[in-house]
Specification:
heterodimer; A: alpha/beta; Rossmann fold; 4 domains; eight-stranded mixed sheet; 23 helices; 24 strands; B: mainly alpha; 70% helix
Chain lengths: 682, 288
């Protein structure tokens, strides 16, 4: 018996350019106590489903057809007051961005207790007592104090826990989670997923889990429903859907995923093309323009959902399709350092000053205290020609600052950067210009990295003009550069807003290539992109490295992406490197305890998760003060004792090119962590 | 919701239409400019021809807008006055943009000490009431139109600096600015070729407003007797001269007043329309 069922839901958005079909004939159902994952990339309409169920669609949305039946009642037919009574009491919701979902002006206690007071008429004092219990239930420490705290005093993970407590306080039967962990670091995400899993079991919650991350689906859900351009393409039990997807789109999504498992670290098989224009959908099967198995009938006949092998699929060839075998690995690297150093960084420090403040004390009674944030704290590394060094770290670890220092976009406080054996730490004028030609950077955000007022050709052409290329020569070179990154040459005439996120990122790469650099800092180049697009950009970067013998510093919070492309990996935490070595050696024991925790936190589609997960306590440390001991000691699950706080850890070398900064002996690091931590706040 | 907004689409170019505000603004401003340019040819009488017999005559076939206390034709004076008023409006705006925009870009991009220095100087300028500052500049030297224009321009510099700075602060955070630095572009190029085109929409609207304010402030200065000097014809001066005769002969003040309103409205619509067509997203249609 379905607890929530969505039946043939069709939703349109009115836009100045005509209606957009956000959802077409979407049907699925969730049984009581079940967790259904709604999987899709951006533009698939997955958030629209959540809003439609909650009755929170904006005025520009129009429900053309369909029913949303919750516990026997059609929610779409209910008047707003009845819906309001359901929302927050029987229907709970957790949104993606915890930073935007809490009111910064109200204390936590009032916000968590609010639904009780509103829906149940509970007296405020009693509601606060309940709120305290709810905060304790989601694993937040010292709930008394939290009641009076304000959102800005909490970390992202703690805020997300507060939101979960708030959505659970009226004991809802259905919890809708819209990308609840996407904005969080991977170690925090792992702990939130643990919490949701535990809550689900203890309360018998029904969950509608909206996500783009198939690893998260594997971790927490029972069934998966794949949404593409407003239509459900495939629906079935999680295990079967992820192991042997029936629809070509789901197969493509899985082929696009970068994985930590060595055997699947082959070349990715992304989906070509991009999401169709929702104003003018292709006839026939909506996926046919991007499908590798397309036949003539696919172009004309619309596909219906039909049962195959106990699942339902919107593809008439499902069940007869060959499973795509991953292409052979073209970038097999043994990881041993070779060649002359291209970039060498020695003991680099970067501190940002904070506003000074007056403090009482000292000989003059009042003293001006200067404060600073140490974003990078004594980093040394070397990158050789044609080599990719992956730099992994969570947000706030200082990895982007390090990248900008190396690209000389930000001046280091101390330390030395040399390029091709020349010290470029303080290069000015001509020396700096020469350096800029050889060293380029690619940024994270494809929205902000291109000037919206300039055509693509002008953006790329400027780099060429700076190299002294003439106007006529430039036009041809711009076309060649665009083709090198897989875009048609006539894209030069377009403005950035006419491109998709992936295409914009390709233009950024073309711009970086224009000066024929030897080394590129890739600062989270794929983090802002959809899964299937991530794969194409990663492939492109790998191809360019092989063809042009480029070296990269590949910065990412995503260990899987780094593992996919990097020859060597450096793990950064609180401004310092904790471990560095060839990729295969960093991903296998012996680990630094932090690397081990990062690896076990990554939600994966390959691993069946059982109780062997390591969770870190607390959040990434403040990088503020100078640290005496190991930067990781506060959260380390294998902390020895005072020595970790007092003295800087030595380098342990399990292999010639692999070092770990830890007090533990190498034999100890080789053994997996035994002490599993009960998560505290996170 | 974000899902529906980021729909990818096939590239297509919608036919580009000029926004109606721009068309109306353009025609009003164009008409005023044309009349001002052709004033000596189309004015029925010389603007300073005094006729004692035709004093304070109401509108008639001979004098469409009547005559003033010296018997001068109001229509001719209003037409000729457009030249001085528009000259004042556009000239002063050019001065305040020319000074204010580079200062604002510099303050917003370089931050730190440069920013402090420029902005504190602007605070000093802003602490004077505009008329007083105009008076200060003009009172110590003999009045002339050029000086009035410069004074009005300088009075409005702080507003432009603040606007340009705040727009720059935001744009300077974008990654394409870092990318420009990474490829080796200098500060001047980044300010004027990368930042300015993005900061332009609010500045265009503000410039439209400034033209009208400058005309009004110029008129106020003339009214106070330190702008345009009699017998030359300026809208402000005309209104000032007409003050004693508001009751018996309201047309003397009404004609330049209405002319000023039409000009102000036209220029404001023009600035608004400009902002719309300067945005490539609105111009080419959203397809990404």
């Amino acid at each position: 018996m379905a607890f929530l069922s969505v039946e043939s839901l069709t939703v349109e958005y009115a836009t100045p350019a005509g209606p957009i079909g956000a959802l077409r004939d979407v049907s699925f159902s969730v049984g009581k106590g079940e967790a259904l994952a709604l999987v899709g990339e951006s533009g698939s309409g997955k958030s629209t489903v959540a809003l439609a169920v909650l009755g929170l669609l904006g005025p520009e949305a129009r429900i053309v057809a369909g029913r949303v039946v919750f516990d026997g009642r059609d929610l779409l037919a209910l008047p707003q007051p009845s819906l309001r009574a359901l929302r927050g009491s029987r229907l709970g919701i957790v949104f993606q961005d915890p930073f935007a979902s809490l009111n910064p002006a109200l204390p936590i206690g009032a916000q968590v207790a609010e639904p009780l007071i509103y829906h149940r008429g509970v007296r405020p004092a009693d509601a606060l007592a309940k709120a305290k219990a709810a905060l304790a239930e989601v694993g937040l420490p010292r709930p008394d104090e939290l009641l009076k705290a304000y959102p800005h005093q909490l970390s992202g993970g703690m805020q997300q826990r507060v939101l979960i407590a708030q959505s659970l306080i009226c004991d809802p039967e259905l919890l809708i989670l819209d990308e609840p962990t996407t904005a969080l670091d991977v170690t925090v995400e792992a702990k939130i997923l643990d919490l949701l899993d535990a809550l689900r079991r203890s309360r018998g919650l029904t969950m509608l889990f909206i996500t783009h991350n198939l690893g998260v689906v594997n971790r927490i859900c029972d069934r998966a429903c794949v949404l593409y351009a407003g239509s459900v393409l495939e629906e079935g039990p999680k295990a079967a859907t992820l192991a042997a997807p029936l629809h070509p789109y789901t197969q493509g999504l899985l082929g696009s995923i970068v994985s930590l498992e060595a055997e699947s670290r082959a070349r990715l098989t992304p989906i070509p093309g991009r999401l169709p224009d929702l104003r003018q959908l292709p006839g026939g099967c909506i996926f046919h323009p991007r499908c590798a198995h397309v036949l003539e009938a696919c172009r004309t006949e619309p596909q219906l959902m039909r049962p195959v092998e106990g699942r339902s699929v919107r593809c008439w060839r499902a069940g007869f399709l060959p499973h795509q075998a991953p292409a052979p690995d073209t970038a097999a690297a043994d990881g041993a350092p070779k060649g002359a150093p291209l970039v060498a960084v020695r003991d680099l420090h970067k501190a940002y000053p904070l506003a000074s403040r007056l403090v009482i004390g000292g000989p003059t009674l009042l003293r001006l205290q200067r404060r600073e944030v140490r974003a990078v704290n004594g980093v040394s590394l070397t990158i050789r020609a044609g080599e990719v060094l992956g730099l992994v770290g969570e947000s706030g670890s200082g990895k982007s600052t390090l990248g900008q220092c190396i690209a000389r976009l930000s001046d280091a406080s101390s330390g030395e950067i040399s390029f091709l054996d020349r010290d470029v730490t303080a290069a000015r004028g001509g020396a700096l210009r020469a350096f800029r030609r050889d060293v380029q950077i690619i940024f994270q955000n494809p929205m902000s990295s291109l000037n919206p007022r300039r055509r693509v050709g002008a953006t790329i052409g400027r780099s060429l003009a700076l190299l002294g290329r003439g106007r006529g020569e430039r036009a041809g070179m711009i076309g060649k550069l665009l083709e090198a990154v897989g875009l048609p040459a006539d894209y030069a005439r377009r403005y950035p807003h006419q491109l998709s996120g992936g295409e914009r990122q390709r233009v950024s790469i073309a711009r970086a290539l224009a000066s024929e650099p030897k080394f590129i800092v890739c600062d989270e180049p794929i983090s802002a992109l959809d899964v299937s697009v991530q794969a194409t950009v990663l492939n492109l970067l790998a191809d360019l490295r092989d063809r042009l013998k480029l070296a990269y510093l590949f910065i990412s919070h995503d260990l899987s992406a780094v593992a996919h492309i990097a020859d060597r990996i450096a793990v950064m935490y609180a401004g310092a490197l904790l471990e560095e070595g060839p990729t295969a050696q960093v991903l296998a024991p012996p680990f630094h305890p932090y690397t081990e925790a990062l690896l076990s936190a990554v939600p994966s589609i390959d691993r069946a998760h059982r109780g062997d997960r390591i969770r870190l306590r607390g959040d990434a440390g403040e990088t503020g003060e100078a640290m005496k001991g190991c930067p990781f000691h506060r959260r380390c699950p294998r902390k020895i004792g005072a020595i970790c706080e007092e003295s800087a850890p030595p380098l342990v070398r399990p292999a010639p090119a692999h070092w770990i900064r830890c007090h533990l002996p190498v034999e100890e690091l080789r053994r997996p962590t035994t002490a599993r931590l009960v998560p505290a706040a996170g | 919701m974000a899902d529906a907004a980021t729909i990818a689409a096939r590239p297509q170019r919608r036919r580009f239409r000029l926004p109606p505000t721009l068309l109306v603004g353009l025609s009003l401003t164009g008409a005023v400019l044309a009349l001002a340019a052709l004033a000596p040819l189309i004015a029925p009488y010389p603007y300073d021809e005094i006729s004692v017999l035709a004093r304070l005559k109401p509108p008639s076939a001979a004098h469409w807008l009547g005559t003033d206390d010296f018997g001068r034709d109001v229509l001719s004076r209003t037409l000729m006055g457009a030249r001085l008023s528009l000259f004042m409006g556009f000239g002063a705006t050019a001065i305040c943009l020319g000074v204010g925009v580079p200062l604002g870009l510099l303050a917003g991009y370089l931050r730190g000490r440069t920013d402090e220095f420029i902005m504190r100087a602007m605070d000093v300028l802003m602490s004077f009431p505009p008329i007083l500052l105009g008076l200060l500049i003009l009172a110590v030297t003999p009045p002339s139109l050029w000086k009035a224009m410069a004074a009005v321009g300088i009075v409005y510099v702080p507003a432009i600096v603040r606007l340009a700075r705040s727009a720059t602060l935001e744009i300077a955070q974008e990654e394409f600015i870092l990318a420009a630095r990474a490829r080796g572009d200098g500060t001047a190029y980044i300010l004027f070729a990368e930042i300015l085109p993005n900061a332009w929409p609010p500045l265009a609207v503000e410039a439209g407003l400034r033209v009208t304010f400058a005309i009004l402030l110029g008129a106020a200065l003339s009214f106070l007797g330190i702008g345009a000097q009699p017998p030359s014809s300026d809208w402000g001066l005309m209104i000032s001269d007409a003050r004693p005769f508001l009751e018996p002969a309201p047309w003397i003040a009404l004609a330049p007043g209405i002319a000023m309103s039409i000009t102000v409205i036209g220029i404001n619509l023009l600035g608004d329309g400009l902002r719309q067509i300067l945005d490539p997203e609105l111009r080419t249609g959203r397809t990404g």
